[in-house]
Amino acid sequence: MMGEHDVRILVVDDERPIRRFLKTSLGSQYTVFEAANGEDALASVAANRPDVVLLDLGLPDMDGVEVIRRLREWSDAPVIVVSVREQEKDKIAALDAGADDYLTKPFGVGELLARLRAALRRSASAETEPVFKTGNLVVDLGKREVLVRGQAVLLTPTEYDLLRTFVKHAGKVLTHDQLLRAVWGTAYESETHMLQVNISNLRRKIEPDPIRPKYIITEPGVGYRLKVIEQ
What we know:
alpha/beta; 4-stranded antiparallel β-sheet
């Protein structure tokens, strides 16, 4: 079971005193990372895989709502907006973009901790997903186990992360950029060759015929899709 210090919190705020205050308030219970602008926030999510993001909307390089939109293209990390903006339209815009919660400054530390615990509970319950099956392919995300025709398949960590991303978006087309960001991070968005090599390796391990794949389908000029085959 994950301990509190195993939980990673990313604090995104351009004001150093607020980042310091939040790190001091949360650091005794959680591992805290910091970012001062939107680009650094997106890079930190890719590199550090936080369990919750605390996000200010007034950032120097882009609006926080844009950060949420870009984040939601490839990450499902819970986002709690922490902002001085208290108008209803601002809250609606953030929540519509994909934020999970909205806390208006100033706030009490007790309330922030309660919101964090609630976000973590929701995230944990979302992770208890049923075993995914399509055709003769079975992926148990809880056990990190992959079976083909009942036989365990050994995947590299990267291959598993790639397959896990497909499973979480089963049936949906994922672009090259979305897959690269989800598995390798934002610094690798142009490395399509690396993606193609890993797709090829993954197909060799899970497909009945890698030349004519039935699970990981190529969408020409766009990306790939994990096909859901009815049992």
